Amino acid sequence: MNVVLNAVQLIGVGMHEILCQPSIDNLSDLLDNSEYRYLLPLKTDYGARLIDIPDNRYFECPDCQTLHSALHLKVQYDGNKVYTKKQPCDPCGSRLKPRFAR
Ligand SMILES: [Zn+2]
C-alpha cells in the first residue's frame, strides 16, 4: 500500500519539486507524519540536508529472504551523522537491507 502510494507521488508533482529543489521541506507528502516531524528539527537545529535524491529502491530482508520496494532516503545532519529511512520487513519485522547498492 505504501509502496504504491509513494510511486504515484514520486511520478507526480512531488518528484518534480524534489528534483528541482531537493529539500526536506518537500518530503512531507512522501513520509509518514511521524518521520517528517522527526526530520524537521534535524533540519532547523542540525542543518540536515538530503544527500541523495529520494527514490524507490529494492530492499531485501536478511532473515526471511523476501524482496521489497520502498522509498530510499538519506539525510546528513550535525556534521557527519547520517539518517536513513528505517524499513521494517512486513512479514517478520526485521530491518531491510538495500538490495542493489548504488
Ligand atoms: Zn523478513
**Biggest sheet, spatial arrangement of strands:** 1-4-5
Let me know the average pLDDT. 81
Query: How many H/I helical runs?
Result: 3
Q: Helical residue percent?
A: 25-40%
Bound molecules: zinc ion
Overall domain count: 1
Shape: elongated
Low-confidence residue ranges: none
Query: Main sheet?
Result: 3 strands, antiparallel
**C-alpha termini separation:** 25 Å
| Strand runs, count | 6
Written account of the structure:
The protein is α+β, with helices and mostly antiparallel strands and 102 residues long. It has one domain (2-98). The protein contains 3 helices and 6 strands. The protein has helices at 2-11, 13-20, 33-46; strands spanning 49-50, 55-60, 67-72, 74-77, 81-84, 97-98. The chain has a 3-stranded antiparallel β-sheet, covered by helices on one side. Strands 3-2-6 form a 3-stranded antiparallel β-sheet, with helices on one face. The longest helix is centred in the middle third of the chain and has 14 residues, at 33-46. The radius of gyration is 14 Å and the shape is elongated. It binds zinc ion. The site of zinc ion has 8 residues, from loops.
